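Troubleshooting entry. The earlier prediction with 4'-deoxy-4'-aminopyridoxal-5'-phosphate gave an output that would not parse, so I re-checked the input for stray whitespace and re-submitted. Clean input:
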Amino acid sequence: MLIQNESRVKEYLPITGLADFNKLSAKLIFGADSPAIQENRVATVQCLSGTGSLRVGGEFLARHYHERTIYIPQPTWGNHPKVFTLAGLTARSYRYYDPATRGLDFQGLLEDISSAPSGAIVLLHACAHNPTGVDPTLEQWEQIRQLMRSKALLPFFDSAYQGFASGSLDKDAQSVRMFVADGGELLMAQSYAKNMGLYGERVGALSIVCGSADIAVKVESQLKLVIRPMYSNPPLHGASIVATILKDSAMFDEWTLELKAMADRIISMREQLFNALKIRGPSVSKLWMFNLLVHFLLIPLCQSVDHLSYHAETPGDWSHIIKQIGMFTFTGLNSDQVAFMRQEYHIYMTSDGRISMAGLSSRTVPHLADAIHAAVTK
Ligand code: PMP
């Protein structure tokens, strides 16, 4: 895709960034027919990618919001606690992931959110939770929304993977749109690093959905006072690339096709890894000897042991690999197993067992499956 370089002019942008980019970003996440946009209740400022959007939002809240505590999921992206603490907020965590099921600890989440003080801020990953790949279902999102609104908790959404989780930009924004639809306030940090591959351009947006158009004007003015002493104004080039794509319907369609192809490839990697683990077992020659041993020696000797069985698949339930969403899989491997795989197989991952599915290919899946098998059976 060729993008005419509209930004040959190297003038400063305004403090709030490129106006077109801001409008189009709000439309992308909230939907073209969003009531909040139609009623001019959204203040959007261009920021330095997702991180910068979170930081500006955090600083704004620390200065102007009455409750300084932000609840973040346990676990979460490692930078979240640092960003918010340095912004002047107090970070506390809420239960999110259940290692036993490798899924959502929904009960724990509800309990922790219900015991937050009224008005507290709650950070929510819009989709493709990093690092776990575990997202609430739409029904669970609805319960979270009702609980949060009933306690006047303020949602702060982090959307770093829109379009990358399901392949549909609208579907990946459903959680956010449920909260906007009820007319309440929220903060929204958007990143174009992954979904447009603009990592190094540092292009993102912070939107604050307010109670009225009048408040949105005041909020935007206060956001300028946060941004001006921090970096004066944001960079031009990346934002002009995003705006060019979002406003041109042919380019937009091409981009969504490419996004879908990337999301589908990640889903296919999940299936390939899951299937590879199901068939992993001792090598053929060893298996042949093992079969002989079991059939002719162990079974006659252990007639009374009715649970005697042997599997050619990797022990454990690996269905979380296909259930989890987005770029990351929380494998459930422990730090010893991760170290073993690094030493014996030269496979490198974070010590919490998180792997990026985007880094896998059909060629490398068998090697990873061999390594996981060896790590869990050693
Ligand atoms: N939020 C989450 C959940 C992320 O995973 C990331 C990037 N890994 C970000 C925000 C910020 O990314 P960036 O600043 O590059 O847009």
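This one parsed fine. The chain has 14 helices and eleven strands.
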